[in-house]
Amino acid sequence: MAIIIPTNKAVEDLKGLHLYHGDISNCSMRVRMTLIEKGLDWTSHHIDLKKKENISDEYFGINPNGLVPTLVDDGIVHIESNEIIDYLDNKYPGTPLRVTGREEEMLEWLRLAGSIHLPAVKPYVYATKIAPKLQKTAAEQAKYDDLQKNRDLKEFHKKHAAGSQFSKEDIDKAIKTLDDCFTKLDRALEGNPWILGDQFSLADISWIPLYHVLVGCGYPFQKHQNILRWADSLNDRESFKEGVLKWCPDFSKV
Q1: Is the pLDDT reported for residue 29 higher than 80?
Q2: Please, is 240 exposed, middle or buried when counting C-beta atoms within 10 Å of its C-beta (0-12, 13-18, 19+)?
Q3: Residues contacting residue 173 through CB under 8 Å, at least 6 positions apart
Q4: Residues 162, 141: contact at Cβ < 8 Å?
Q5: What does the DSSP assignment read for 75-132?
Q6: Does 75 have pLDDT greater than 90?
Q7: Following CA atoms 65, 71, 77, 80 in sequence, which dihedral angle do they give, to the nearest 10 degrees?
């Protein structure tokens, strides 16, 4: 469980569920969906990534990576979205979001979604859509470099800093990883309404934000007809409407 001790001690006094999240963040989307599916009351703390609101001493004092989302539950700080949604489903009763007898399989889908975030999802999203919109000023870059202690994140953001671009090798590697993973997902959905069969679960919540964001970046899902059917079936689900579309109706227009 990714629990951290914050240096911003103010959050330790918070009561109830508080979510620090970004509208366009796929990781935030999955936590919002889970909170809605579980019927939980939560306090929203929106972090505008396009305004670099995460690049502050206050926020890095809550999440040492400067990433969203961060969940604070009665003063305890949780980071890493897939671990957060598993925590919420385990702790809070009602509307179970796991399939009896298939929990390990579900957790494997969560781990896979998390494992491709930095090496594949972020490079593809930044290279095709986001990098120019999140370009930092010299002052913002200096502030980020001072606050960020995570070496992998520092290396990632150097690749698009000051007008730099991701290499063809980076993008080709990201596309290969995405192709492999979405082929696996398409096969899992063959003849099934949901990833684990007949029951909607955290596995679906973990992966549908990736679809939503990547389709907005032009990723070619046409070759994955089962994924298209699955994604279409989520359009009328309340947690998707309120947790994703309400905040980011069309990622292609971000």
Answers
A1: yes
A2: buried
A3: 119, 120, 123
A4: yes
A5: TEEEE-HHHHHHHHHHHS-SS--S-TT-HHHHHHHHHHHHHTIIIIIHHHHIIIIIGG
A6: yes
A7: -50
Rg of the chain on CA atoms, in Å: 18
Do β-strands 17-21 and 43-46 pair in parallel, antiparallel, or remain unpaired?
parallel
Domains belonging to the chain, first-starting first, are 3-91 (3.40.30.10), 103-248 (1.20.1050.10)
Q: Is the pLDDT of residue 187 over 70?
A: yes
Task: Answer whether 81's CB lies under 8 Å from 69's CB.
Answer: yes
State the virtual CA torsion across 116, 128, 248, 224 in degrees, nearest 10.
-60
Task: List Cβ neighbours of 178 (8 Å cut-off, separation of 6 or more).
Answer: 116, 120, 121, 124, 214, 219
Among residues 117, 115, 22, which one has the least CA distance to residue 69?
22
Altogether, the residues listed in the chain come to a count of 254
Q: Residue 184 has what pLDDT?
A: 98
Predicted confidence (pLDDT) per residue in 127-151, tens digit? 999 988 888 999 999 999 999 999 9
> What pLDDT is attached to residue 1?
60
β-bridge mates for residue 72, sequence order: 18, 77
Give the DSSP H or E segment for 71. Answer: strand 70-73
- Predicted confidence (pLDDT) per residue in 141-179, tens digit: 999 999 999 999 999 998 888 778 889 999 999 999 999
What is the largest distance, in Å, between two alpha-carbon atoms of the chain?
Answer: 52
Between CA 122 and CA 124 the distance in angstroms is 5
